[in-house]
User: Fold this.
Amino acid sequence: MSTDNNESRTRTTRQPKRGVPEGLFQRCPGCQEIIFRKEVEKRLGVCPACDYHWYVSARERVRQVLDEGTFEEWDENLEPGDPLEFVDVKPYAQRLVAERARTGLRDAVVTGTGMIRARRVAFAVTDSAFLMGSMGSVVGEKLTRTVERATTQNLPLIIISGSGGGARMHEGILSLMQMAKVSAALARYHEAGGLYISVLTNPTMGGVAASFASLGDVMFAEPRALVGFAGPRTIKATIRLELPKGFQTSEFLLEHGFIDRIVSRADLKTEIARTIDYCGK
Ligand SMILES: [Zn+2]
Assistant:
C-alpha cells in the first residue's frame, strides 16, 4: 500500500468532510440526534431538531440567497500569484492547486450581481473550505471591485462571510493590506449613501472579522456562529481569565450590541429583501 493511500485514509477518519455528509442518515453535531439527510437538505443545511447550521459552500449560498438564474459572476478568473514563494508544510503554489481541485473555486470568495426577491444587489460570499476562507490578494481585490461596482451602479451590497482564517499568511503583507483596501472602498461606498448588509456565518474570525465583515450598516449573523478576532484559547492564555459563557457566539454578540439580528438560514433571503426596502434602497 502506498503512503498516499495511508495518508488519505487517516485523513478521512480524522477529519469529517465539511457540510452535510453523504449517506441516508447522519448525526447532528448540535444535538447528536440521527437525522434523515434529505430533511436537512430541504432545510438548507439546518437541523430540524435543534437549528444547528451546517457549513454550506459559496456556490450553494448563491443558490440559497439569490433568485434562480439571476447570478452573474464577476472576476471569476482572478488568481493569486505567489510573490513570496511561500512554503510551509508544502509550497503555497501546490496548496492552491489542491484547494482548487477540492473546492472547484479559484480562490476563497465568489462575487457578482443578482436579484434577491427581484431587487438587484452586489453580492459576495467567502467560503471557509478554501484555505479557511482567508483573505489574500484575490479575495481583497474581488471584494474591493464588488464594493466599487456597488458604488457606481448604486446597488445594495450583501457580503456573507464564512472565514476562519483571517488574513492569508502565505501572501504576507499583500494579504494584510487587503483589510485597509476593502475598508477604504466601503468608506467611499458609505459616503455615496450605499446600504451594506453584512452576514456573519460560522466561523468569521481574524482579519476578515477585523475589516469588511464588521463594517456593515446592518449586521446579521446565523445562529450560534463563532465570530471574533483571536480564538478563545489564545485570549484565555493571554489575559489569564475565565471567558464568559457563550463568548464569541452570535447570541453573545447580539446581547452586547455588536450585531443587529440573528437570522436563521431559512429567513435570510426574506430578511435581506425586507431590510433593503426598509432602508429605501
Ligand atoms: Zn441537531
